[in-house]
User: Fold this.
Amino acid sequence: MKKIFCIMFLVLMTTIFIGCGNEKKTTDPNKIPTTVATEENSDKPVNDETAQDSKPVEDKLATPNVTPQTNNDYVLAADDLSNLQLNDPSKPVYDKYIIWERQEKGLPIALPDLEPYYDEPVVYLTFDDGPDGKVTPKILDILKAEGVKATFYVCGNMVETYPEVLKRIFDEGHAIGNHSYNHRYDQIYASPWSFMEQIIQTDNAIKNIIGVRPFIIRAPGGVGMFSANYWTMIEDCGYVEHDWNVLTEDATPSKPNASTQVNNVLKYLGDDPPHSVIILMHSNGDKQETVKALPEIIHFLRDWGYKFGVVTPMTPQPW
Ligand SMILES: [Zn+2]
Assistant:
């Protein structure tokens, strides 16, 4: 019974019937976790110039033909998803199949139950809305200099525009998560089917470049946008969503400078900092102050004894 929602969706996708969901969005804040703040205050698409959705459906579903690379920098899921209970928050987890490829091959799609990783205090630096050609490379430079891994929740249209930056994120051992195709709330949140269409479209874009696709996703604006059916769809399709419990507020209209961003992180951490910290930042557009704030954020978190991990299906939820 459980996988019916996802399979129905995949059937719809493969019968070229995308975006047909007429289900009304019925966000019920009582049924869903709430986050400490919304990610952005507008539904502006990321990279407006490239935010187009004009590709034929056949192209969106085309099988990527990049061979997965295998190395020790990430964990590649087994066909039966049996190797995902890890004891290491430092390695990204990817799949060599898009979910409809799993369905075609008769492989499991929904993830098994996994124990969250709580062994050590871990901070997960996350950067949304990229990759771009200016800010993301600077962030990668800092992460490399500091010897720190992070997680980049990318948009499909940005991935197609800056494939070499996505490749660099992957090659340098950071985790890549899925953050929709075009970040347009009016399209993403038209229905759970619309949401999942963008997730799969972005998986295709990612897999076309690096040969694997992520299990981790982040909803633009956070899961406050979800009704219960979104959760059912995500779980049945084998994705794990993570919001955040700390943010620099770098995407708010006040555009905080670097020192304010550092103070914002301290404010959210409070007097009793969480064991597991997921920090929301952004790596696109005009986020130069985020770049300036990043080294100090890394330094004091390291001084406080946190390890730096990448988001995986085992990462504890921040709420
Ligand atoms: Zn975003």
Residues 4-19+60-308 form a domain with the TIM Barrel fold (CATH 3.20.20.370).
